[in-house]
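Help! Submission page says 'invalid entity' but I think these are all valid:
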Amino acid sequence: MKKENSKRVFVSGMGCVNSIAESAAEFEQALREGRQGIDFYKESKQKGPIKIGAEIRNFSLNKRIDDYSLKENVPQTILNKARKVARRSPFVIQTAVAAVLEAYVQADLFQKQVSGERIGIIVAGNNLTNVVKNAYMDKCKNDLEYMSPSYALQFMDTDHIGTLSEIFGIFGEGCTIGGASASGNVGIIKAYEMLQLEIADICIVVGAMAELSDAEMYGFYNVGALGGRRFGTEPQKACRPFDMEHEGFIYGQGCGCFILESQESIAKRNAGILAEIMGGAILLDGNRLSNPSVQGEARVMELVLDRCGLVPEDIDYINTHGTSSPLGDETELKAIKQVWKDQVKNVWINSTKGLIGHCFYAAGVMEAIASIIQMKEGFLHPNKNLDHPISKGFRFVGNDREEKQIDIAMSNSFGFGGINTSIVLKYCSQYKSE
Amino acid sequence: MNREEVFEKLSEIMIEYIPELNGVTFTMEDSLHELGANSVDRMDIIVDIMEELGVKVSITKFANAKNIKEIIDILCEEYV
């Protein structure tokens, strides 16, 4: 049942960097084309068990800042600050700066300002600094007494918070949050709740990039979660959510930023709206292991529908968690069937991971961005490599995009340790185009 | 290494952390802070020059060093 007095929360800006796009604007075109970012790794990753993944290529924060310098919509003071503060920042933070910059521009937050204390920030993801730590340890292993003082700041995930709040003048509530592969949705949901409580008028949500080192890759490989063996020499075929030949997730790099804003703040600023967040839900399985649960996934989808005052038939489209892992894909389809029953044939389904791999902490935000882009532009991106679906009776988008206007979308994310999440987004026709 | 060489090495490290200093003339009388180093930059620079010289001094000893000259004084006390 939808709560009375619940405030309406909208998305006023989006930004991202991933393996197929350097911006949300480019992401739209890439989704439309069904572009895929999975390829052989650049050399440095060749030590891992799997040689393919969806890496971010050719991204440079300095270049991005230079591009913005040529346009008038970002104050020079902000760009100078971004250059200076993020200069020595790890790659993952630099992608976050770029994503937030893009979202701020879209939300017109530089021109139509809000007091910094009314802006909050949540960075979703944990263990964001593994690669940074490894680099420092390599450098200082012979003598830890020369450990870089910067390490004291950089080893914590909150380096994201410090950096972004300094560049963008964010003085409200800020923290990092984790939910394994569901982190992105967890961040969106907590930001939504922050606005419900009126702690902030605007909340910046960053789904942070997961930079996995060889140790994590071998861990995932040995626990049987990492795919890419069967199609190791044909990277474009390796990520196959819901297909009979799926065998595990393919690692994807990406960072996404969502700006959530209250209805009052949007009206005050006369800002544009991209979509409405109708609600979200998080439920645990009470299970430490990596196996998903039909019951848990079904229950969280039912709960978010209930909170939004909706029934399953109201959902036109589900952006699935769809990792290309056999157990994960099967479980999610069973859960969807349990909730939608006969109506399952009416709800469109795709998986953005088929195009950009599994972006881990960023996945929930990235996939919500993909959902909004599809809603705004009236299409559904293809399901890559879905040659033989594991289950019949579902309305999968095929290998080509569908021209379809979606009104209400659901986006699922599920994480190891029994973390189930789902959010519901509604199309809004009042948005400014760039 | 004599004091001039230490200053040169230190300058190289400073430019790594503060690229704007490239081409700027500065002297031992200047302070890292005035030249654009924030508090953590300053510590990073000092730890780096210590590593370069093979010197180990507690960072707290540098807390009151007002300028580059005083930093080099402390380094050279320890440097053999």
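Support: the input was valid. A stray whitespace character was the problem, and the output above is from the cleaned input. Chain B has one domain: 3-79.
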